[in-house]
Amino acid sequence: MFSGSIVALVTPMDNYGEIDYTSLRNLVNFHVDAGTNAIVSVGTTGESATVTVEEHIKIVLKTLEFADGRIQIIAGTGGNATHEAITFSKMFAGSGIAGCLSVVPYYNKPSQEGLYQHFKAISESSELPQILYNVPSRTVTDMSPETVALLSEFKNIVGIKDATGDLERVRIHREFCGEDFILLSGDDLTGIEFIARGGDGIISVSNNIAAVQMAKMVKLAMSGELDEARSINEKLVPLHKDLFVEANPIPVKWALHEMGLIVNGTLRLPLTTLNIALQPTVRQALLDAGIL
């Protein structure tokens, strides 16, 4: 259902911080041409925390429109309030999106029982396929493999994006959740090894920049051609690292502007544009990857 090279797409904005739908259309076309397998619209990288509810819905639906059936669209629908996540899932019912990516609730630090009840309520409110998203570096709370296993019993909870970087979890999740449960890496640095251990693909920040390379690399890895995949990845390692010299998506939006793919690197406050002292670092990573 969901596999391969998936991009956690940025939300482009104009000089005034308004959504730049022309650049969004260009980005969708860029990924179709590059061979990206799916787009996550308005996830963390898409600044879900700072766009309005109305903007969130419109961005997803415009991305779907621009895709025009050429590439799967997964909507970011998470929230730290269960009712909000449920509302987003319901809003996209019948829209044509392929599924939802729902992040572990952030800031309020729920227990494992709270996480179970949160995702259970979302599952029972929607028929859309749901992908869990565990990223404790951003949410503080780490969803345990045992909780994931319990949630995998719900028919429409089909997989997890695991951004812990803990490769042992591939084996554990596969053992606990079964062969059909979709395992996607959310950590670019360990993504290839995640696939080598039995994962189904990567939801990637680097894919915004290196879409062609990521698509080729992931395809090779998934077909067992790991030496060739690792060779491509070796050139991308500086990019995987340096796109996080400041909080995501600050560096990746700056890089996309450098590449001419978006009008500028504008973000919504409290995020600001990439520190001038760090710009040479990201530029060098782009050069090392053969992108600039």
From TrEMBL:
Biological processes annotated in GO: diaminopimelate biosynthetic process; lysine biosynthetic process via diaminopimelate
Q: In which pathway does it act?
A: Amino-acid biosynthesis; L-lysine biosynthesis via DAP pathway; (S)-tetrahydrodipicolinate from L-aspartate: step 3/4
Where does the record place the site Part of a proton relay during catalysis? 44, 107
Catalyzed reactions: L-aspartate 4-semialdehyde + pyruvate = (2S,4S)-4-hydroxy-2,3,4,5-tetrahydrodipicolinate + H2O + H(+)
| Lyase keyword on record | yes
**Cross-referenced InterPro entries, in alphabetical order?**
Aldolase_TIM, DapA, DapA-like, Schiff_base-form_aldolases_AS, Schiff_base-form_aldolases_CS
Q: Name one GO molecular function term.
A: 4-hydroxy-tetrahydrodipicolinate synthase activity
Q: Please name the catalytic residues of this protein.
A: 133, 161
Q: Keywords assigned by UniProt?
A: Amino-acid biosynthesis, Cytoplasm, Diaminopimelate biosynthesis, Lyase, Lysine biosynthesis, Schiff base
Q: What is its EC number?
A: 4.3.3.7
Q: Where does pyruvate bind?
A: 45, 203
Q: Record keywords: Transmembrane helix included?
A: no
Source taxon at top rank? Bacteria
Pfam families, sorted = DHDPS (PF00701)
Q: According to UniProt, where does the site described as L-lysine inhibitor binding lie?
A: 49, 80, 84, 106
Role of this protein: Catalyzes the condensation of (S)-aspartate-beta-semialdehyde [(S)-ASA] and pyruvate to 4-hydroxy-tetrahydrodipicolinate (HTPA).
Listed PANTHER family: 4-HYDROXY-2-OXOGLUTARATE ALDOLASE, MITOCHONDRIAL, DIHYDRODIPICOLINATE SYNTHASE
Q: How does it assemble?
A: Homotetramer; dimer of dimers.
The UniProt similarity line reads: Belongs to the DapA family.
What name does this protein carry? 4-hydroxy-tetrahydrodipicolinate synthase
